[in-house]
Amino acid sequence: MDTNEKREFMREVEQQGERAAAYQEGYADGASDGFDRGVMIARKIVMRHAIGGGELKPATKYAGLSYSQQLAKIEEEFGEVIEAYTDGEPQERLAEELVDLQTACETMLVIMGYDETARKNIRQMVADKNTKRGYTE
After folding, report:
1. Per-residue pLDDT for 111 more than 90?
2. Is the CB of residue 121 less than 8 Å from the CB of residue 77?
3. Number of alpha carbons in the 13 Å side-chain half-sphere of residue 133
4. Is 51:106 a contact under the CB 8 Å cutoff?
5. Rounded to the nearest 10 degrees, how much is the dihedral formed by the CA atoms of 24, 29, 31, 32?
6. Residue 65 and residue 108: Cα distance in Å, rounded?
7. d(CA 47, CA 53)
């Protein structure tokens, strides 16, 4: 790797760190509205286009990956969400990346051994918990 390549690499690392810090700071300050709106838009897109019949479907093609391989995929998809948000991409692009992230998480549950019923049950448990905490109406 020559000096220019090293500089470019370091510049990219620095930019990623700045993006992550800005996101974390905004979230800590309660400025997660854009992210929350993005999740809602992602759900609407899933429903509108009947992706998986409105249900989140895991990428079963990758069900044989190890935990660490799938966690790396989740991290990659999360990075794409942050990039779409920080780069000011259109909301539909952000929503698409959010659905990709959700799919990667759903796939992780399959890798962990959760069948469709168990995944539905865990989602309901979390929904109930969030309702009790006042996160939803």
Report:
1. yes
2. no
3. 7
4. no
5. 50
6. 9
7. 7
Residue 47 makes CB contacts below 8 A (sequence gap 6+) with: 54
Segment among 9-13, 19-23, 65-69 with least mean pLDDT: 19-23
- Reported residue count of the chain is 137
| Residue appearing with tokens 């998986």 | 52
CA angle 130, 136, 137 (to 5 degrees): 135
d(CA 77, CA 11): 21
Q: Let me know the angle formed at the C-alpha of 98 by 9 and 48, rounded to the nearest 5 degrees.
A: 145
pTM of the complete model:
0.61
**Cβ within 8 Å of residue 58, ≥6 positions away:** 103, 106, 107, 109, 110, 119
> Chain-centre distance of CA 134, in angstroms?
22
Where in the chain are the domains? Answer: 1-30, 32-132
Q: What is the largest CA-CA distance in the chain?
A: 56
Per-residue model confidence as pLDDT tens digits over 60-97: 899 999 999 999 999 999 999 999 999 988 889 999 99
Confidence band of 110 (pLDDT split at 50, 70, 90): very high
